[in-house]
Amino acid sequence: MLNRVSKLYGGFDSEVRQVLSNTSWLFGGRSARLLVSLLVSTWVARYLKPEGFGNLQYALAFVSFFSPLSTVQMGPIITRDLVRQPVEAGEILGTAVGVQVVGGLAAIALSILGMVWLAPDQPLAQLLVAIVALKYLFNSLQPIENWFEAQVASKYAVLAEQGAFLLVVALKIALVLNRAPVTTFAAIIALEALFYAAGLLLFYHRQGQRVSNWRASYQRAGYLLKESYPLVLSSTACVLYISIDQVMLGQMLDSTAVGLYASASTLSEATSFLPIIVCSSLFPGLVKAQGQLSGGYRRRLQQLYDLNTLIAYGLIAVLIPLSGVLILGLYGPAYRAALPIFAVHIWSTLFAFLGIAQSKWIVAEGLQIYNLYSRLAGLVSNILLNLWLIPIGGGMGAAVATLISYAIGGYLFFWLIPPT
Q1: Same domain, yes or no, for 30 and 81?
Q2: Residues 72 and 209 in one domain
Q3: Can you give the pTM of this predicted structure?
Q4: Domain containing 131: what range?
Q5: CA-closest candidate to residue 263, choices 51, 30, 407
Q6: Residue 414 covered by a domain
């Protein structure tokens, strides 16, 4: 395998060694966190049973619709401006945090009002949504993460994130052992955002920075909103695309159907970090090769597609035969009905992995608008297919709808559009 990689990239030069090293670090870190998170979350799902787990997942899916509004998707813009205008850091951070506080409050209000309108006779769903949505207020301190990124000191943001994650893991274990109600697990979701914000503040102050130096500017707020609104639209389409199936299942069937589907989709999507790691490691080399006349750009692009496709097929070939052991072992016998749903849903990883590679090519070619169009195509097809298939097949119908819509949004759409 290593010899083949060496031949593909012309020997183990410094670039290849850097790619392999970076990929190894990312893979190791993500894998460790994924394993812990998967074990704890499935233990929680086993404890809550499909109905309780479905109630929690339904609230999470619905609240996620408003997540782009809470951060206004300003992260890349904030980082860029902090690098270009370091002397204006106080105004940039103060304005960004102020905008995100307003966005977070709007997201909370819309989440609660939306659930009251959508499910007026479900007080538990309304309460869970109200609790989970509180995380959007704590997300307002995210610009500190962008400050660390601009300072090439992202390790502090990672430490804050890992600290919050470990605290939440410990709390979830304690809640299961003490047989806590589902509402407390919703509170933990909000608390994780609070812990992360507190960690960011702590490390920010340890770097000699002070929040008291921040100041807000209406002019800069208008500029940030103008720069970020296309990202808000694109992210909203993406979030709806990913989460709409669980909300539609909850509306058209019940929370048990949501719990069974969520267990299958969570396990199916657990490996989604793999193509992200591959693409993040290979993308810089792809961009460097773009302007060369040697044909290396197209060769490397094809290698990226091939590698992501190979990983997807490998996961499908391994996980489908093991699905019974995984789902029954992790979630318990109450989730047996999730087995056929998983066997269908796992095939969507092929198109998801191809879509991630495609998005890198889109950025390299400067065709970002087609990412938005493709997500909208996938979203519309997913909604229409869910309306047709959920009444027929329940969770299985939702899985088929996901598979087809991923194929449309991540592959077929680009085949139909001449520029792509």
Answers
A1: no
A2: yes
A3: 0.81
A4: 65-226
A5: 51
A6: yes
One-letter amino acid at 159 equals L
Those residues with Cβ within 8 angstroms of residue 334's Cβ, 6 or more apart along the chain or in another chain: 46, 49, 50
7 — pLDDT class (breaks 50, 70, 90): very low
Who has greater pLDDT, 22 or 141? 141
Radius of gyration of the chain (CA): 22
Same domain, yes or no, for 386 and 309? yes
Q: Report residue 8 as tokens.
A: 């593909």
- With 70 as the cut, is the pLDDT of residue 92 above it? yes
CA gap 327, 335 in Å, rounded = 7
Gap between the Cα atoms of 308 and 352, Å rounded: 10
> Measuring CA to CA, which residue among 408, 40, 58 is closest to residue 258?
58
List the structure tokens of 202. 């702590």
> CA 72 to CA 95: how far, in whole Å?
12
Mean pLDDT over each residue of the chain, to the nearest integer: 84
Q: Please count the other Cβ atoms lying within 10 Å of the Cβ belonging to residue 399.
A: 27
- The answer to whether residue 370 scores a pLDDT higher than 90 is no
How far is the CA of 123 from the CAs of 59, 129, 301, 353, in angstroms?
Answer: 12, 10, 51, 38
Task: Give the Cβ contact number of residue 162 at 10 Å.
Answer: 15
pLDDT of 307 above 60? yes
Answer yes or no: do 323 and 387 share one domain.
yes
In terms of pLDDT, which residue wins out, 49 or 14?
A: 49
Region for residue 122 given its phi and psi (left: phi exceeds 0; alpha: psi -120 to 50; beta: otherwise): beta
